[in-house]
Every structure is written in C-alpha cells, then in structure tokens.
Amino acid sequence: MSLASVSLDVPNPRDYAFDWALVDVETSGLVARRDRVLSVAVVTIGSDGKQTGEFSTLLNPGCDPGPVHVHGLTAERLRGAPTFDQVAGQIHAMLQNRVLVAHNAQFDYDFLAHEFARARMSLPVSRRLCTLALNRRVDPPTEDLRLGTLAAHYGIPQLKAHDALDDTRVLAGVLRASLREAAQLGMALPLVACPPRQDPKFRPAPPKTRCSFRSPGRLSPGGPLTQGMKVAITGETALSRTELVVRSAAAGLNMMTSVSRHTSALVTNDSSSGSAKARRAIAEGVPVIDERTFLRLLDDVRPGTPYELHLAPPAQAEAVVPPVPAPAPVEATPEEQPAPTSLVSAPRRGERTSPRRESPLADRPLSGRRVLVLGGTHPHAAAARTRIVELGGAAAINLSAGVTDVVLLAGGKADRRMRRIEALDIPAYPGDWLDAPALVPVPRQSPGRRGPLVLPRGGVIDLPCQGSSSLWHLTASWAQQTTCEVDLVAFVVDEDEQVSCDEDFLFYGAPESPDGTLRLLADGPTEQTITADFSALPPSVHKIVIAAAIDGTPAFGEVGAIQVVAGPGSSALPLAQAALDAATTERTMLLAEIYRRGPVWRFRAIGQGYDDGLDALARRYGVDVED
Fold first, then answer.
1. Which end of the chain is more exposed for a tag (fewer CB within 10 A), N or C?
2. pTM above 0.70?
3. Could you tell me if 6 and 34 are in contact, meaning their C-beta atoms sit under 8 angstroms apart?
4. Which neighbouring-strand residues pair with 529?
C-alpha cells in the first residue's frame, strides 16, 4: 500500500507523502551521551510509498555490549564488525533530505546524533516522526503501544524482536497503517524539527554533587556552619570559586547558585556590590559573611541530619502496574491540598476547597467513554469538560480513534473535524445532552482494554514505582490547531521547594538533568514529555513540579485544555490523566506535581495558572534568572 494512497481519503495528499528514512538501533544502554550503538538498520521509502533502499550492519562499539539478554549481541558477535565511523558516510547518504522515522524516535535520533558527533560528522536530519507519538494520537484499541503490539493490531508479521533490520521492516508496516488511521481522522502528523532546539550540543553538564543533609536553617550570628546549610557565593573571591565550592561541598554544605528566603548564608567580599544575589539577601534578611570568615567556619562544620531514603515495604518490592483497572485516587491530606481545586470555575487565589469524592458508578454514566467537545467559548467548553469528568468520562482534546462521543456547543457543527466524525459514525449531541446523557453502544471500544483513571483538578494518585516501573513518563498535549508555542518545564526541588542548582530546572535549552534522572522530550509541536527515573533520584529530591509556559503574548484561554497523562514507560498506556483548562488570561500554569509521601511517590493534577511569565515562576523555585 502506498503511504500517500488517495484511497485513504486524504484531503491534502502531500500532508502524508514524504521521503522517509525508517531507522532502528540496538544499543549498549539507554544513555546516548554514554552508551554506544551496537547495530543499525535503515530502510528508505519514497513519497510514493515504494521502498528505495535498505542497509543494516552490526557495529563494534569498543565497549561492553550491555544487556545481552535483551538484544542478543555478545562481544564475540560484534568482534570484527565495522565501527560507526566506517559506515557513517553510507548512513549519512540514506538519511540526507529524508524524514527520520522510528518508534520512540528521540531515542534513535539522540544515539545517532552522538555517534555522528564522535565521527566528526553531523546528522543530516531536519525532521523526524515518531510512530509511538503518532499512535498515542490515533489511540488504537490496544493494551499498549509497543512496536510488537501495534504490529499484531495492524496485522504485520514480526519475525525477530530486537533485531534492527526486522524491527525496521515491521516499522514500515506500522507506519503505513498509522498513516492510514491518521488520514481517516484528518490528523496532522506530529513532525519534530531537528536537531531539537533543546539539545543543540548533545553534551549535558557534569552532575553537581547533591547535598546529603537536610537544611538546618540560617547561620546564626557568631554560630558555626552545619552540614546541609544552603550557601551562595557572589562577587570576586581570593580563592577560586571552583575551589571554594568543592571544599564546601566536601564538608557537607549545599552550595546554591541563587539566593532565596531559604538560603542559610551568602558569602561575599563586597555586600554593597549591588549584585542580584546581594540585593536578594538584603531583602530576605539572609546572613552575609565575608570570605575570610567563611573559610574559618569551614574548618569546623558541625554534623547535620542526613536525608533518610524511604524504602517500600518488602511486600511491594516487586510491584508493577497491574493489568487491571487503575487504583482509585487517594484523598490528599490538608497540607497537600493545592489551590484551587474547583472544576467549574477557578476560586480566588489562595482559596482552598476539599477534594472531590468519587460518585458511585451508577451515578457516572460516562464511565469508560472519551468525549470530545467542539465549539463554544473557552468558559463554556471548560464547563462541559468539567461535567464530562463529573459523569465519569474522559474529556478528549483532539479527535482520535478512542473518542466515543462528541458534544457540540455553539459553532461546533462548523468545526473542520465534523466531516471526519460523521464518516466514523461517532455520535454527536447538543450541549444539553450532558444534563442526562443517553448512550449508544460503541463498537470500536476494546472490552478488555484498561482505561486510565480520570483525575479532577486536585486529584491525587499513588504511583507504583517499584521494580520495573521506576521510569515514569508525564506527557502534556494540547489541541493540534494551536498556533502559539507552549513549552513544558520541570523543577526538581527539595523540602523547601527550592532547586539545589540551576541545572535542576529543565526547559528547552537544558532538557536533561546533569545526573540523567530526568529528561524533557519533544514528540511533536503539540506534545512534550517529562521522564523521571524514581529509582535513581537521591533522597534530597522531594518533589518534581511540572509546568507549562506560553511564549509571547497569548494566554492559556486561547490554547484551551492541556491534557496531562502519567504512565510507566513510553509504550504503556497511561495510569492517570487529567484535562486542565481553568486558566484564561494566564501565561504560565502549574500542571502537576510528583512528590514523595513516605516511601510512596504520588501524582497530583493541579491546573493553577499565573499571569506572570516563566522567569517569575523560575525565581519562585530558586532558579537564578538574570534581570
């Protein structure tokens, strides 16, 4: 079947017709800047859907091949294979002027980018398409979105999993089928411009040594330094700044790059310098000491209180996400309550409300349904999505194969997606249908498929993060017709809700934490993901705050709802989801938090908007932002 076949009923065939380069790599590990490619396969396909080339080879990485039980590539098999630089020219020619396609494309793209950099060449790719991200939008009725699962769903034979060439041939079939589904839905392809703007150098900074001690508060006049104190330095120093930081960190101090109300002391030889740190220290009443005093105190740092690593009870050590309905939401304690939590309209800033309790199933007729709202003003559409959640349904923000019902508000019938909705026989109802919905059967639904738990704003759920489920993905997406640019960011904070260094702020310019435990991934112009490896996070990390910011003057009222989903791994179906759309004039919005509660990690949907820009939000969490 041609990738651009007119039989797909494509309004604009060129929207789906590209010169493609389908790629799969097997690697010695998961970290592109450290691990190496062991085998690579490339299949090229023209815009007419016909295969034009094929290449595959094993590679000698010059290092341990890593998890042989996964890829089967032993050191003996790789001995005598070419090195990447010996085949880089041939791969370069096959990728030139083509859209790179892979399943979890950023993984393959990052590994190839690093290998080409080691070979002193550039990766000749300007755009990429991820079939995993594409199928997240299509939303086929499968138990997960792994390549093998999608191949079985689309009727594509798979001979040998984790074989680069066979996986690439399977990928070709999945791409053809996925493009057919996307065309039926009138869906724009989630093409990503490359190289990703958030990772131009492919060289993350070396990790900062995290402090292992809790903060004891501020330095008292004439008192000693205590391990865990947060210390910042500004201005010229007699001893080099690097040496000061290294000696202080070795003594157990938490060396910060910015000043906040939680700073224990500021070290400076000129308190009247007028630097941003000095001004903030004066405003917050932070103790200020000179370098000589600091060095004297550094010779006698008192013992601090170490962080305790909470371990899960033995019975939960092997827990994984069960293939059964998701766990019920937990009730947040009073100190955990975000503000606001109302669904219908946002309370005044600072107002707190109680978490919404789940209604009995008999009172939730939309349970298991995914409902798309078209038309209406932003407040009316937000209220309709609120009602959908109250009735037990999931509020969709884009048309996908998983949409079961459509609600038409004022102007909804004129939406360009209506032609597709009618062709797919998806029932559409007026707005007052939500008062007492009468349902028709949905033959497209898979009866055995587990749907994610739908959380309201303020909803909280425990994450089963032990064993193989320690790597979690939090994905935010918004309407595909959005014209303004939305950026996902994350703050890794301690118990004082402050970053320990500027590198604990993830954004498009710094997409990876120095220790590699968190990453920001771009899966398309209207979808971004934060990944977190909970098993590798140090005990000093108390919370991960995920936010979104709009570049320029538009506000979230123009974007509409932001859908946030949390799930274990990139290919698994989400465990929980929330549609957040209370913001109107705001340009930044807190979407969610993932935080420790004893031995358990919890996910909380927030949806709190702010009129200030991203720089003000970053300062709130202790990021040093230049004026």
1. C
2. yes
3. no
4. 475, 521
What is the DSSP-derived secondary structure letter of residue 378? H
Q: What is the pLDDT of residues 576-610, one digit of tens each?
A: 999 998 778 899 999 999 999 888 899 999 999 99
Buried b (16+ CB within 10 A) or exposed e, 325-350: ebeebbebeeebbbbbbbbeebeeee
DSSP string, 396-446: ESS--TT--EEEE-TTGGGSTTHHHHHHTT--EEEGGGGGS------TTS-
DSSP single-letter state for residue 314: G
Tokens encoding 27: 């690697």
Query: To the nearest whole number, what is the mean pLDDT of the chain?
Result: 83
Element (H, E) at 288: strand 288-289
* Other Cβ atoms within 10 Å of 441 Cβ, number: 8
Bridge partners, 405 (sequence order): 371
141 to 21, 145, 217, 519: CA distances (angstroms): 27, 10, 53, 28
Q: How far, rounded to the nearest angstrom, does the alpha carbon of residue 471 sit from its chain's CA centroid? A: 11
Closest CA to 623 of 547, 520, 554, 562: 547
CA distance 556 to 101: 31
3-state SS string for 315-331: HHCCCCCCCCCCCCCEC
Note whether 450 and 577 are within 8 A (CB).
Answer: no
Q: What would the pLDDT profile of 176-203 be if each residue is shown by its tens digit? A: 999 999 988 888 899 998 865 444 444 4
Q: H/E element holding 493? A: strand 486-493
DSSP-derived secondary structure for 595-609: EEETTEEEEEEEEEE
DSSP reduced 3-state for 235: coil
Q: How far is CA 582 from CA 341, 344, 347, 497, 585, in A?
A: 10, 8, 10, 24, 10
Domains of the chain listed by start with CATH number? 6-193 (3.30.420.10), 230-298 (3.40.50.10190), 361-435 (3.40.50.10190), 456-620 (2.60.60.30)
